[in-house]
Amino acid sequence: MFKPDPRTIAALRDSIAQLAEPAASCLARELDAVLMASVPDLTEVLLRAVDATAAADLLPGRALTASACRAAAKRIRERHPGGSIELRIPPFSAVQLGFGDGPKHTRGTPPNVVELDAETFLALATGRLAWGSARVSASGVHADQVAAVFPVTR
Known about the structure:
Elements: H1 6-18, H2 23-36, H3 43-55, H4 62-79, E1 85-89, E2 93-97, E3 112-115, H5 118-126, E4 137-139
Parallel strand pairs: 1-3
Antiparallel strand pairs: 1-2, 3-4
Helix pairs in contact: 1-2, 1-3, 2-3, 3-4, 3-5, 4-5
């Protein structure tokens, strides 16, 4: 769950304002609905906004990119708790994941590390890019298991 904060909401609204209709009004309504929920989670709206921005050949901006990376990484961590693989999206996020097998890791850097730049990570998270086509820096025998977490959207 990615909770709203004023900076993220402002970045979302700025990004939505740059989009053409009907995408802009659809995302604006979705954002308003999420914000009115008793327990708001911005993950889906952030990923849809980043996807719509990329489809319109626009840049999402640093604040939106950072929030979307953190939200998607957190969603992946919630779905795959553990500590056998570290997924890094520098400078925005790093999470440790587990898939039921692999080494149990408790301190320091795990033996399996996957590092992606923010643009690649968000393209994978939204389904715009397939794992086999992505620029991935990976080490460790279990690192390729991270491919199973993409796309992040429902």
